[in-house]
Design brief:
There is one protein chain. By secondary structure, this protein is of the alpha+beta class. 44% of the residues lie in helices and 19% in strands. It is built from 10 helices and 12 strands. The strands form 2 sheets. Strands 3, 4, 5, 6, 7, 8 and 9 form a 7-stranded mixed sheet that branches. Strands 1-12-11-2-10 form a 5-stranded mixed sheet, covered by helices on one side. The longest helix is centred in the C-terminal third of the chain and has 67 residues.
């Protein structure tokens, strides 16, 4: 009898425990990657480089050759840090459901998220382009972000929520801001850096000729400050006059790097789910939907994901059905146009043939010189 240990492992460990394990593993990998990048920036050679250097120096002691070798090693050491700077394609960071209460909640940050469209705003080479989650450009505008208005040789990449009703970009996070690369920085540093930059450039939140739409940085709250977090959870509406409306709560691990894709170090809950998952009270105005059971929050998450997946599949099917219909309609219009063109050509040909035939008969004397009703068009021109 064979045993599938993989299936046993999946059954014995629930999704919440799996999420904990993935969080720990990802944190470890990110720390190692940061350490390697720091060593490369300081030009710290590893043991293999030292051994190779000693062997190369023993084989050839000419100073020019040793300089070239050192330059080669330095280029190889910094390659990992610079290999993605040109032609790099960024993707939005996607959150997971927070399926368990973290063992140390003080390692996390809370960020209220408004209802809107997630997008990636990239300012570089004197232009600012807005990309949707699929990577398509949906908007181009002028902004005062570094990379557009000033310091055009640098790049700013912001993770935003665009609220069309207010025509405003609300900034969640950043991959880079000007000359500061933030992709591998911890979330706590990224948020601190963004706050300091937006405080320095208050004009970003105002509309002007050089800044066509406002950019507003969302506030974050540290769970170490229990009073501040409690005030946020008890506040309703979250923003003045409920504009924009609250969509849900994002939870960022303080040590999390920005991940282009789904990551367990950024999690999500609707406000009405927080008491059941984190055992924290919220304002009573955050009412759950009718199909939500407080004792079955995890089941609600799974059902919500299934409904969302079904909606996406239906949307794709509608798109596939609409494309052939559009092509058929375009083909029909084109065919109608061709038929009409052919009819016009046949009419012109018939008139020309009648004219030539009339002239031939006239030359042969088959017709009299007076106007003939048989060919009124030709008769009128010859009389």
């Amino acid at each position: 009898m064979t045993t599938n240990y993989k299936d046993l492992y999946k059954k014995s460990v629930d999704l919440g425990e799996q999420q904990k394990l993935r969080q720990l593993q990802l944190l470890h990998e990110q720390k190692q990657r940061r350490q390697l990048q720091q060593d490369a920036a300081r030009h710290v050679p590893d043991s293999n480089d030292d051994e190779q250097g000693e062997e190369e120096e023993a084989q050839d002691e000419t100073p020019t050759h040793s300089k070239a070798q050192r330059k080669q090693r330095r280029k190889r050491a910094t390659n990992n840090n610079n290999n993605n700077k040109k032609g790099q394609h960024f993707r939005l960071q996607q959150s997971e459901w927070l399926r368990h209460r973290p063992e140390n909640l003080c390692d996390w940050l809370l960020l209220p998220c408004p209802v809107g469209k997630r997008c990636l705003v990239i300012a570089t080479n004197g232009r600012t382009k807005v990309h949707n989650q699929a990577g398509r450009i949906i908007m181009q505008l002028r902004t005062l972000l570094p990379g557009d208005a000033h310091m055009q040789r640098c790049k700013t990449v912001l993770d935003c929520v665009y609220v069309s009703e207010m025509d405003t970009f609300y900034v969640l996070d950043a991959i880079s801001f000007g000359q500061q690369q933030l992709l591998e920085c911890e979330a706590s540093f990224r948020f601190f850096w963004l706050r300091s930059r937006f405080d320095e450039h208050g004009e970003l939140s105002q509309v002007s000729k050089r800044n066509e739409k406002p950019f507003k940085l969302l506030d974050y709250y540290d769970f170490e400050d229990a009073n501040a977090v409690d005030q946020v959870l008890q506040r309703y509406p979250q923003w003045e006059a409920n504009q924009p409306q609250l969509d849900g709560m994002l939870f960022y691990h303080k040590e999390a790097s920005y991940t282009c894709g789904t990551t367990p170090l950024v999690c999500w809950l609707f406000a009405f789910m927080i008491p059941d998952v984190l055992n924290l009270s919220v304002n009573s105005s955050y009412t759950p939907p009718e199909d939500y059971q407080p004792s079955a929050a995890l089941t609600y998450m799974d059902e919500f994901d299934k409904k969302l997946l079904t909606q996406r599949q239906q949307y794709k099917k509608r798109g596939k059905v609409a494309e052939p219909a559009k092509e058929e309609a375009a083909a029909a219009v084109g065919a109608a146009g061709m038929d009409q063109g052919q009819e016009d050509e046949l009419e012109e040909y018939a008139e020309l043939r009648n004219l030539l035939d009339y002239q031939r008969r006239l030359e042969l004397g088959e017709l009299d010189m007076d106007c003939s009703p048989a060919s009124p068009a030709v008769a009128s021109s010859s009389c």
